[in-house]
Write a structure and sequence with these properties.
Rossmann fold
């Protein structure tokens, strides 16, 4: 909640949300749930008077996650699978629509490759159609660092115009290729339907709102650190990636939503949270008083792993809008583990 209040207190043009409505898919996920918290706390602290339509597949999960707001009339949870058409006669104009729902970790990529692709394309189209029908002022599509593919060896950082290599004829390509297609679909709706669209490109986000079912390497490290167990590294750990603490990812999302230029994509990243996987494992092991051990991944896990060895994002375009993260990788990781241990 300290993080939530900090983000709600940032100097952003909040007046654009005053008395408005926001509809988001993926409301119980890592990023979506934090954003819901921020908007509802902003309502309470500063009379933002913003109605939040939160979409998710599980009402039970939503009731547990948002129990604090059980009697808040400005939170409306709607059970919904984004891969199905979304038609609601009981909802009028919705000012902002955000598509945050997505399969986002290796086991999902390997065991539900169809759902991974369809959520990012068909689910996105359903949300775009809803936004058009309900006269949304702006639409945001949560894209990913994975759209850049593998580093061709010609740059250290990926700016928003970079395009690396992806072998599209593989199971693992379903996630990055569908995110790429999703961005192109957004541009099509902007051109053909006149929809105002922005595209925040998230890097590998983490934080205390992470789902315990998440199988990303960092999430597994964090779970081991919270449990006081050795950190299991399933590769040489030379992958060099950008990461971002959830509060900073959401503040970046809000900056893009409220300040970004229509049609533009923005990397939500800052180089002080770039780190090699083995160094990340070592930080968590040292903080938890444990060791790093190596283990060969099983076939399902291996099928879902990214082949990218270096994926560092250039965040200057977003920083030019005034965004600045509050946590670098070490402080963000330690904060995450501390909070999860206290709430375990």
């Amino acid at each position: 909640m300290e993080d939530v209040h900090r983000v709600a207190g940032l100097e952003l043009p909040w007046e654009k949300l005053h008395g408005k409505s926001v509809l988001l898919s993926g409301a119980t996920g890592l990023l979506g749930s934090f954003l819901v918290d921020v908007l509802l706390e902003k309502n309470s602290a500063d009379a933002l008077n913003c109605t939040v339509y939160a979409l998710g597949r599980s009402k039970e999960k939503a009731d547990a996650r948002f129990s604090k707001y059980a009697n808040d009339p400005q939170l409306v949870f709607i059970p919904y699978d984004v891969k199905k058409p979304f038609v609601r006669d009981d909802i009028g104009t919705v000012d902002y629509v955000l598509h945050l729902a997505s399969n986002t970790h290796p086991v999902q990529y390997a065991t539900d490759p169809i759902g991974t692709i369809t959520t990012n394309i068909i689910g996105l189209q359903n949300m775009l159609d809803f936004a058009v029908a309900h006269h949304a002022a702006r639409f945001a599509f949560a894209s990913s660092n994975e759209i850049y593919g593998e580093n061709r060896g010609d740059v250290e950082f990926f700016d928003e115009g970079y395009c690396g290599y992806i072998d599209s004829n593989t199971l693992r390509a379903g996630y990055p290729e569908s995110k790429r297609c999703g961005e192109a679909l957004c541009q099509a709706y902007k051109s053909q339907k006149g929809l105002d669209i922005v595209i925040p490109r998230f890097t590998r986000s983490y934080g205390p709102t992470m789902l315990m079912s998440d199988t990303k390497a960092l999430s597994q490290f964090i779970k081991k650190g919270v449990a006081g167990e050795d950190i299991v590294l399933k590769s040489a750990g030379t992958q060099y990636y950008s990461y971002q603490y959830v509060a900073d990812s959401v503040s970046g999302l809000l900056t893009v939503l409220l300040c970004g230029e229509s049609g533009e994509a923005y990397n939500i990243a800052e180089e002080h949270s770039d780190i090699m996987l083995r160094d990340l494992a070592s930080i968590i092991a040292e903080f938890s008083g444990r060791s790093v051990v190596f283990e060969i991944p099983d076939a399902v896990e291996a099928a879902g792993y990214s082949k990218a060895t270096k994926a560092r994002l250039d965040g200057h375009k977003l920083q030019a809008l005034g965004w600045k993260p509050s946590y670098e990788i070490q402080s963000g990781i330690k904060r995450t583990i501390k909070i999860l241990k206290e709430t375990d």
